[in-house]
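Ticket opened by: R.M.
Priority: normal
Category: complex prediction / small molecule

The reporter submitted a protein together with fe (iii) ion and asked that the result be attached to this ticket for the collaborator who will pick it up next week. Submitted input follows.
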Amino acid sequence: MLCSELNLGQCKTYLLACENTRKAVLIDPLRERIDRYLAVLAYHGYRLEFILDTHTHADHRSGVWDLRELTGAQTVMHREAPAPRIDIHVEDGQELRLGKMVLTLMHTPGHTPDSISILAGERVFTGDTLLIGGSGRCDFAGGDPGAQYDAVMDGLFSLPDSTLVLPAHDYRGHDHSTIGAEKKSNTRFAGRSRADYIKLMNNLGLPLPQKIQEALQANQSAIEDESVNFPSIPQLSQVRQIEPLLLYEMLKQGEPPTLLDVREAEEFSGDLGHVGGSRLIPLKELPARAEELGIKNRPIVTICRAGMRSTTAAAILTGLGFDHVSNLKGGMLAWDDQKLPAER
Ligand code: FE
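Result attached by the on-call engineer:
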């Protein structure tokens, strides 16, 4: 098995390849470096099978969609990842085969709800869950320090001590560590209770990454179009959220709201299906097509997979003068979890 880190910077992208079958996987590719990744793959004669993001990144644009387009490899993320065009949504314990290698996906939430770690033989790629001598911040939307503590203490730290730890970031010049070394000397966790950890992580007071808005929204929506004007974070936090059960009740009443699904066409008719009666306008087409929704004072509920893209859509519509827009909280994933009826 070949494993190499391709960026030689603080942001890590790993190439993992089976040397017998020449099949390869890239973990956490950066959009601005895809030319280099393609060159490395071509030089070694590797065929890219899978492209994984360990989570929805807030600090850089993901390269997974460009690479999918250019190589035909399948994109892989956790089930809770909000982005479209993910070919394989994985859950805790699921395995992927790469030639003779088996990759085991572990759900390790906390930094984000969709964070995964990838166990490949004697290596574990820990994303931003476990860093060398540290751990990823939990103060972005959906962050949960308690979940992260559990994911590390009960999940990653139950791997053999000799397992190599390969994180998505390192700011201090390390390139790897081991589970045994982290258990002993990672001061975020060693000798610290869950309550202590939550307190510590809630009080880090870190500045937000530069370009967080641009990176998050592009990575949550996979929209490449630079001309789409995304709403700002304060506008997004003002979007009214509506629970799936409440929407279900409203739909049974006399004048139900207009349902606007903003996913891609293949998701609309895909596994999760859609709420009966909804109309489809993909998010990237919404600014140009909002007029199709007609009068602006009718209630509208926006819908997507996980509730991220549709929150953006709701803010865009509000900005365009639509008065009564709310968002289906948790999207079709939450609708499906509540076993509410969907059309396919
Ligand atoms: Fe991150």
